[in-house]
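User: Second chain of the day. Same drill as before.
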Amino acid sequence: SLRNIVPDLPDNVRLVALDATGDHRELEALFSRPFKVVDAAVELPPARRVWQRVGMGKRKVNRLMDDQAKLEALFRKGMANLRPEDKHVLLITHQSAEVALLELARRVDPSREWASTHYWSSRGLDCWRDYDAALAFGTPTANRAGVLDLELALFGGDQAARDSWFSGLGPRDLIQAMNRVRPVMASKTLII
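Assistant: Same format as last time:
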């Protein structure tokens, strides 16, 4: 099991964490000191943002893989929101569906250059910065058992802190994944 061993740093050491989706509670638990949150509030350039309300966690996406007609219909619904000028599209989905969905995207719309990544894998990557769009197919939800050791190491028996931290994992990773196309640098299409 994991243990949080706090580094022995003098109190006058300034710690700066640059992470747009970071959670100050993690840092405070790791370093046993308070952190001041500074929100840069960077305004995004005008962009096309589309929110499709289709609840699709990993289980639902995996079940869809057995119904190719329904899968393609839902995928086309998301693709319909791409602009004609969106020539390079990053597909973001669950690891178990990534290869099949990338093949579907390339088959359904070969006029675009498609790349893919899956949730929990792309944090900090900059290789898609010049892409025109990001299309999320499905939404990330952490597996509680998969992060339990980390959760306990950070927050111990504080169930409220653990629940709050856990509930933010999926949304934070969705934001991280969508931002691989760097919408802060130029107008991009973001489809969730």
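Residues 29 and 154 are 5 Å apart (CA to CA).

User: Great, on to the next one.
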